[in-house]
Amino acid sequence: MSDLVFVLNSGSSSIKYQLLHAKSGEVLASGIVERIGEPDGKIVHEAGDTRLIREGAIPDHRDGLRQAFELFNDTGIDLKTIGITAVGHRVVHGGEVFYQPTLINKEVLETISRLSKLAPLHNPANVIGIESTLELLPGIPEVAVFDTAFFHDLPAPARTYAIDAKLAAEYDIRRYGFHGTSHQYVSEQAAKFLERDTTELNQIVFHLGNGASASAIRGGRAVDTSMGLTPLEGLVMGTRPGDLDPGITPYLMHIANMDLADIEHLLNRESGLKGMSGVNDFRALGKLIESGDAAAKLAYETYIHRLRAYLGAYMLDLDRVDDIIFTAGVGENSVEVRADSLSGLERYGIHLDGSRNATRTPGIRRISTDDSPVTVLVVPTNEELAIARAAIDLVD
Ligand code: ADP
Q: Is the four-CA dihedral 99, 104, 107, 109 of positive or negative sign?
């Protein structure tokens, strides 16, 4: 059977896609459709050495995907006939219902749509992505892989909010966690690298991208994570604040006359690094710090302070820690973030090797010293590959 999978990550304002072989991970083509719904939309499509850029209005997700399919044709790939075995979808919220890769049918699609109440910014875009591929690639099995799945079985105290239990039950309020596909993938890759089984390892993962989350994993099972009912909780992120006193919301409503829409916009788009410094991109933040910008410096220090608080909590929770993993855009690339997150922790068994940390090589790498009791690793994440493999396994 062919192991060719089309993976779609249909987000609120962008779509990422890949056509890849699930076994080898070889990518035949990939692309990103950006600024959907705005007049200056853009598609960057890559296939082998060819890079095509298309600019212009992309009214909606369906049209974005239709245009991306045209670019496949322009590079000589007909997705309908090339022999795709499965379509894999990243779906953000599976609620209490979905915690395994799931074959999509009408009922599943309706349930994902119903779960939009828990992820109003994400699940509706996922649903449109699924509807579009069902239409554009008829007859190919489609599989949903859920961002919340890895955290479904968090121990009860780690998944429970200390609020009215009846209210929580009635409205499905619990800590769900996100980025689960990435946390699971990098923790498994780390185990392979260390030639150990995940069941033998206690691991801490920092997924630091635009969104950022941490997890504590005992013996292959997630026992805590920093994101909650929504992806707003936990670490400081590009545009989200992470942990906040819940009292800030009613305070702003009273004192600053903000309504619900204002608060949602503030928390999702205008907080975090952007709120503190004006920029959400880590490279831009670095440049501001170099230029002596005090707000940017404070934003960075707050980011590190929060990250270390989670590290400390998870170290106590796990008791013995075998490895700490950094992944995603910031985690894989920022020498400073890794160094500052782990500085001065030698008495807890964490010995970073400064030169290894500063040396960039492709693939997984160890950045702790050889005799460090806790191994520190940089593990490139690959959610598309994890989704492709999950889809193929299910269809098989
Ligand atoms: P997303 O959550 O959008 O998938 P990514 O995992 O791609 O995010 O991470 C995006 C973040 O990674 C941005 O803040 C970007 O600045 C940061 N990043 C990318 N490359 C570097 C680099 N070389 N040094 C520092 N930060 C980087």
A: positive
Distance CA 21, CA 6 (A): 9
Longest CA–CA separation in the chain, Å: 62
> Which among 3, 63, 147, 164 is annotated as catalytic?
147
pLDDT in tens, 269-281: 999 999 999 999 9
Give the model confidence (pLDDT) of 347-390 as tens digits.
999 999 999 999 999 999 999 999 999 999 999 999 999 999 99
CATH code of the domain made up of 196-378? 3.30.420.40
Ligand 1 pocket test target in 290, 330, 337 with most atoms within 8 Å of CB? 330
Domain ranges of the chain: 4-146, 196-378
Domains 4-146 and 196-378 share a fold: yes
Contact 54, 67 (CB under 8 A): yes
User: Which CATH number applies to 4-146?
Assistant: 3.30.420.40
User: Is 147 designated active site?
Assistant: yes
Question: Which residue's CA lies nearest to atom 13 of ligand 1?
Answer: 281
Distance separating the N- and C-terminal Cα atoms of the chain: 9
Q: In what order do the strands lie in the sheet with 15-21?
A: 50-55, 42-47, 27-34, 15-21, 4-10, 86-91, 142-146, 102-103
Cβ(211) – ligand 1 distance below 6 Å: yes
